[in-house]
Write a structure and sequence with these properties.
Blueprint (H helix, E strand, L loop, with lengths): L4 H11 L4 H23 L12 H10 L8 H15 L10 H15 L11 H40 L2 H12 L20
Length: 197
C-alpha cells in the first residue's frame, strides 16, 4: 500500500495533539484530502467540483469506485457528523468523553476490521485520533486494492486480445453485421455479371 507521505505526515501531526477539537478537525481534513486524492486517482477523466462536493457525495463516489465498502459508509458518516457538530458548536469539546470516542472507534474498527494501533495515551483526543487513523487506513488500503484489481483486469484483457488478432475480432463482428457467417466467402449480388462473357 503506497500511502501519500505528505498526508501521512499531516495526519501524524494532527493526531499528536491532546485537544479533541483540533484532532477531529485537522485529522478529518486529512481524511477528506485522502478520499479526494484517491477518487481523482481512480477517475479516467477529472471530475469538476470534487473538492467542493459534500463528504456524503465523496463517500458515494468511493463506494462506486470500489475502494470503500457500502457497509462502511455509516461509520465514515459518524466521523463527519462529529466533525460538523464540533465545528458548528452543537457539541462542546469539553463534553466529549473518552468513552464516546472509544465507542466511535470500536464501531469503525469492528465494521472495517482495521486496527492500526492501541491509543498511546488515555483521553478522548487519542480515541478520536485512532478512529480517524482507522478510517484513513481503510481509504488508503481500499483504493490500493481497487487499483490493483483494475490493473489486473486491464492486463487480462490485453492478454486475451493479443491471442486473437483485432482484425479477426472486428472481421467477425462486421461479418455478423453484414448477415454472413464469419469466415464465409463474400457472396455476389444477384445482378453482378462481372464473370459473364
Amino acid at each position: 500500500m503506497a500511502v501519500n507521505p505528505e498526508l501521512l505526515e499531516r495526519l501524524q501531526a494532527a493526531l499528536r495533539d491532546d485537544d479533541v477539537f483540533r484532532v477531529v478537525i485537522r485529522g478529518f481534513a486529512v481524511l477528506e484530502d485522502a478520499l479526494e486524492g484517491r477518487i481523482r486517482e481512480a477517475l479516467v477523466q477529472p471530475l469538476a467540483g470534487i473538492g467542493s462536493a459534500s463528504f456524503r457525495r465523496k463517500l458515494d463516489l468511493a463506494v462506486a469506485l470500489g475502494f470503500l465498502e457500502p457497509a462502511h459508509r455509516p461509520r465514515f458518516q459518524d466521523l463527519a457528523t462529529l466533525r460538523n457538530d464540533l465545528t458548528h458548536g452543537k457539541i462542546d469539546p469539553e463534553t466529549v468523553t473518552a468513552e464516546m470516542m472509544e465507542a466511535l472507534y470500536e464501531r469503525l474498527q469492528s465494521q472495517t476490521g482495521m486496527q492500526p494501533f492501541a491509543p498511546p495515551r488515555p483521553g478522548p483526543a487519542a480515541w478520536a485520533g485512532l478512529a480517524i487513523a482507522t478510517a484513513f487506513l481503510v481509504v488508503e488500503s481500499g483504493a490500493t486494492v481497487a487499483r490493483q484489481i483494475r490493473e489486473a483486469e486491464q492486463e487480462a484483457l490485453r492478454r486475451a486480445l493479443s491471442t486473437q488478432s483485432l482484425a479477426t475480432l472486428l472481421g467477425n463482428d462486421l461479418a455478423r453485421a453484414a448477415g454472413r457467417r464469419p469466415g464465409s466467402p463474400r457472396s455476389r449480388a444477384p445482378d453482378d455479371t462481372s464473370d459473364a462473357t
